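I'd like us to work through together how a protein chain folds, taking it slowly. To get us started, please write out a protein record for me. Go ahead whenever you are ready, and we will take it from there:
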Amino acid sequence: MSLRRRIALTITVLVAASSIVFAAISLVVLERTLRAELDAKLTTLALAVGEIADVHHGVLSIDARDVLQIKRLHVPEEHIAVLDREGRLFYGEAVPTGAQAAGYRFARTTKLDMTTAGFGTVVTWQSDRWIADVARASLTTFSLVGVVLVIIAALFSRALANAMLGPVERIAQLAEQIEARDLSKRIRTGGNDELSRLCASFDRMLDRLEASFETERRFVADASHELRTPLAVARAETDLALRRPRDAQKYRAALESIDGELTRIELLVDGLLDTMRDRAVVAREPVNVAAVVTRVAERMRNTAREVRVAVHGDRAVVRGHGDSIERATTAVLHNAATHGGGGTIGVRIVADARWVRVDVADDGPGFCGEALVHATERFWRADSARSRGGTGLGLSIARVLIEAHGGEVRLANGPGRGAVVSLLLPAN
């Protein structure tokens, strides 16, 4: 049985059970109330008749005037008997006894004089079969009302189940339809209730999955393209060298070309591994950012003598993974040296209560509008940067490693010219 039917059946059964319990309690209360009212009415009638009956010289006396008053007190359904001291009928009807008394309600009261000596008894009674008739009529009414309520509950519960489980069913159907090749479908339900928020959360999850699949698809396509080029060059050099004998100088040139392509492949693989290390930062040790930046700048001066690196700023300490911060700084400085025009690279360290900020500024042409948005994505390179080589992974590596520390990478252009890459790390 489906969940929708179980919900509808549960609500219907609850309404039916509630109707039965309500009808049973109501019938019991109604019957007891009617019997209590009948007893109270008969008792009142007996007391009133006892007040009318007189006692003269120790003997009961009911004259014509008393009879007239008694007849005015009761209706034909009510019966009255006045018995003397010995229990003999003095006025009214004979009191039913034995089997004849079945189906009647009785009330008795004793007429007393000032010396508390009893001179007689007043008995009143009335049939209580009408109470059973009222109970049966009430039961019929309750049954009809209960059937109507059950029908309404069945219709309402089905509509409620459809309203409650409709979005869930759409989620299930959408989940069955979704494939890795097509994540564009959405539920898109309005409203602000729990189910609407669930659907909105599911849509946002699909947005993230679609973006993730698209990123991975683009990553695989770009990686295969970037790796295919040096492999093709190395394969061509090998085929050409093996096609016919050559002298040592030509073999050496071929090997140097192959070595260069293998170095490029090694850089690509290292960069890919770095960009995939989203959770690589596990150590939380004190790291002197100024010392790390100074060490990277000194290494840059030794390997690229035409590039001048100037470091400014005070000592700033963060908690993180020193090697990861050093790799991120190296990637940014290498990007500035490659695309910044080969002049001076300025590095400034600024610390406040929230961030430790490392600004790397070059004197090149700066970022274009598209680069400000996409330059930290894997393998993204502006057209002007493709002619300078590179893997397109430098800023992406820096972003992954800095974000693993809870920081962020920001791109901007300087006030005059040149690009500014800022590494922001959470302060202690």
